[in-house]
Amino acid sequence: MQKNESQFMKKALALSEESVASGDVPVGALVVDAAGEIIGCGFNTRERDADPVGHAEINALRAAAARKGNWNLSGCTLVVTLEPCTMCAGAILNARISRVIFGAWDAKAGAAGSIRDVLRDARLPQQVEVIGGVEENIAANQLRQWFAENLR
Which of 17, 18, 37, 57 is an active site residue? Predict the structure, then answer.
């Protein structure tokens, strides 16, 4: 799937635009199965739904589990436009996701290598392969633009 990382990230970036349309921070995520098929999509819905756990990753994991009819997403990859936070990293581990690909690093709340490295913590029973910085400039610019326009 490595040759498709950028292709899947572009789809996640398009999903993040749906967050913007609903007034939310632009973060999009999707879950890809071992065959390379997208089985779940999500974007931030925290503001829209007044849901403290309405992160793109959580929404994509829920959609993938519902489609599979199983919470165990072992062998699947989560692609997300922003480095997962600690809450989302915990959900990723609980879902048994095998790999995470993300775009922009999150220097304030990242839990996949920047502030914390929950996904690769050797003290936990499972570690996740992490690939960061895919289409990083596009993802980071999308976030910067949104915050510049919405936090005046």
Answer: 57
What is the pTM for the complete model shown?
Answer: 0.95
HSE-CB at 42 with a 13 A cutoff on CA atoms is: 26
> What are residue 78's phi and psi, to 5 degrees?
-100, 125
Task: Name the β-bridge partners of 99.
Answer: 77, 129
Spatial CA neighbour of 29 closest among 1, 67, 64, 53 = 64
Which residues, in sequence order, are bridge partners of residue 80?
A: 29, 102
pLDDT of residue 4: 84
> Are 110 and 118 in contact, with CB atoms under 8 Å apart?
no
Q: Among positive and negative, which fits the CA dihedral 146, 99, 65, 125?
A: negative
Answer yes or no: 37 catalytic: no
